[in-house]
Fold these 2 entries.
Entry 1:
Amino acid sequence: MNGRIRRIGALVKLSLLELWRRNDMFALLVLALVLLVPLSMARPFGATGATRYFDEAALLLVWGYSLFISLGVGGRLFTSEFANRTVYPLLAKPVSRGELLLGKYLGAVAAAWSALAFFYALWAVSSALRGGECLSVCFFQAFVLHALFAALAVAAALCGSFLFTPSASTTLLAILFPAMFFFGRRLPEYAENVSGALRWLVDAFYWVAPHVEFFDMRQRLVHGWGGVEPGVFLAVVGYGVAYSAVLLLFTGILFNRKRL
Amino acid sequence: MRKLIPYGAIALVAVFAMSLAKVPPAQMPQAVSGGGFLSVLLGDAKKDISGAMIKEADSYFHGGVDMDCHHLHGHADHGSQHDEHGHDCRCEHCAHEHMKCDGAHDKGSFDPWRWINERVRAPEIERHLEGERTIELMPWFWAAVKADPHNVEAWGTAWYVASHMMHDDALALRIAVDGWRQNAGSMAMACVVGRAYRAKGTLDQKHSEAMFRKAVELGRNKEKLEGNDLFSFYEALGYLAEYAENENDMRALEMLLREAKRVEPDHPTTKLIESKLRESRK
């Protein structure tokens, strides 16, 4: 048991180091500064004191970046290993395919979470500097749900990399996730406006597609509505964990069936 | 022969470009409205962007909730009605809109995804930004008028928020004057500036009166007065009548009454001016 944990731990460490060695994070940080610094200096009609628009824009950027990082690290996990044939020496070691998959997945999630924690810390500092309330229950819930979103996105990208080519998988998910994020809760309304097979399709999509909008607490955080009820919070956590687990399980089946 | 094809194509393009240059800009299929880089780049999309910014301001007014109630819409147009009773959102329009919002949530069978969504998102209950906190709406109005400087509704609503919610008369006047600078032919905007000069902090009757006179003059020059223009015309006449009554200026009242009767003899403002004149004569 200890040996298995040690092996998985080593894989996690590798994935984590890979993200921070790449320059993606720093490029994103510079981009955030380029976008947010002029926005923070805006004085609409010469008036000062408005902060919510800035908080919302900053959080939206964090969401965009977390999607970019999660899909990137998830999609790259095995693609490069197969392309460079480095997966053979890895599997030659006393590591099972399941352990390799779990270790690499946890590593990618840890990498995505570390980036997320970094951006949330920056947001909290910027909010505190402008006299806002940070480190509240709502902030904690928003971070946890966002982290679960990142875990789900990594699992989806990993699964997609086994089903499609890396670019096709990333493109599909880069369309699906924002679409669900902005319009997911409105799918039943769209279904009501169509008929026949299309309605059935939209309904089926509504039940099966990843409802990433559940993890979005920007509205509560920015407009000071407070946190969600513990029961609802646990339901969303359960949804995120279950969805990621199913995707990972499916990826495991694909990986086990893959001829190397 | 093949070598001549590129030269022929260049000649064709040159002839086409020269013929285009002879067409007056207004007759072009997509004439650029307004100046600047944004106008060329976005064209009519500016109006849509501006409208979306106003919708966002409305959402911010409700604490980030899209209530589809549009409380802020039309305050510039029927602002004086709201002036009378303040913005307590118990007016017929708002009450009706809230009923529509409440009715939208009645759904049949249990849907767990909807259940989660409704609870993760902020509750759709009536909660409005008040007082100084309405400053949060200003960036969206600012973005709306930057996208489309001719969006009189955005200028008017921004003025309304600054004046009636934030109680910042100086800011309200600044917004109104900026809006007038961009929309010098708008009767509604002239009325907004006239009202901005009536505020306690920026009281200037001379300027206020001049702006209401400008609105009436703009109305006089229009072939047909209807909709918002008709509303602004009578709004301006009403305020001018008030000034004339305060100064006991019978001649001005008579002139205003003639002006009011010319367009709609049975309009409530016409009746009001008539009664003011009668009172003054007693």
Entry 2:
Amino acid sequence: MNESDDRNTDAGDGALMAAARALPKGITPGRNLWPAIAEALAEPIADDAVTPQHKGLPHWQRALGMAAAVVLLVGGSSAITWLAVSGGQSSVVPQPVTEPLQLQPVSGSFGAEYELGAEFMAARGNLASQLDAKLDRLSPQARAEVEKNIAEIRASIHQIDRVLADEPDNALLQELLLSAYRDELRLMQRVDGIITSVMRREDI
Amino acid sequence: MNLVKLTALGCMVHASSLSTAAEDVDRRLDAAAAGTVSIENTAGSIMVEGWSRSEVHVTGELGSDVEELVFERDGNVTKVHVDTRRRSGRAISTDLVIRVPQNSSVNVGGVSIDIVISGVRGAQRLSTVSGDVRSEVFEADTDIETVSGDINLQGNESVSRAQLNSVSGDVEVRDVAGEIEVSSVSGDLAVAGGRWSRVKANTTSGDMEFAGELLSNGRVDVETINGDLDLFFNGNLSAEFDIETFNGNVKNCFGPKAERTSRYAPGRELRFTEGDGSSRVTIRTLNGDLSLCKD
């Protein structure tokens, strides 16, 4: 609203506008409020006090972190899909699998708000199948070692999944579950990579 | 016809006699002073030593079922590959001692080989399925992967970057400095000594011990599912701590007491700032207990 508009208003509006124009253009707080807010967020609570979950970080920050993690995971799954596909070009000739590695199905979801998605689960399954074929080329002891440790990670995933059923919004559990899935993929990728790199020749 | 059969039999006997004798090897090649030495061996052991000559020297014993030792140079890369591809026998275990120019980078891969590296100042990429790895590190990057083998990395406080991954093998790091990323599933992790700008550790059921100095603006991220954690900080410590367990205990000899996070779950969390908080320490565990202390 400009000067000519003001002249067309009634007397009450004119007084109001005059008062409004008299207001300062900016507001400078009497003190910096942020340190107090930060202090309040980080304020320790008595040892025996029961505190809400994850008071140290604002909810939105956690949610953003988890969302970012999900995005990373989805991106990672694409890379894994690529690995699963490109792995077929290796010179390693898989042998018939006598005792397939049991890929235990898991829920594929975590928490109340997030899901890993079909693409991730498909890539995970592909990688597991690919590794399964290559594991047959290891000695029985080495194969057993890998299977035992993959089973250990999967047991962790189930364990966290179970606890999450009771506390679906627990951000720590969501974070750990996501990490456990990531660990499983990394392990499968690493072992796959080692086997591929050291067994290019038909010497085992 | 009989002559053909006899000749064929003679060849088989000859081949058989060849395959039953292990072969000593002692070969040399000129090499780039700061090139790459690529070593592959399926079974046995590889010992690599850095020396002052621009030459690669291979000694040792080839398994009797080894096809051949490929030892050749292509520009900056020297290959030492134990080739067993056309042999059906199992006597392929080969033990080699390989001297390389001390500024070389080395890549060593194997299945069931023990790997020992000393005096090599270039980057190292070492992988084995079931053997142990012992290495000495200087300033260059180190990348070691094993499945069931243990990893032992010794430094001399030189700043470097190390990535060490095992599945069930234990990992031990001593007097290395700089940045490290270490992980296992069930193997234990131990980092002793050193001044660190970045430590990232991850294990499912293995325990983790850390005793070192965290530099200003440094970062420590540790995550376990069931593994216990024991962290001891040497020197001046100035960091924000962000610790959370779902089911574990927290015992700390500095900072405030950990707090329960829920009336129903046993989880605890601990957040505080030590000094001016220039660094950051983040710890997450499901069931692991945590011990946290400093000088």
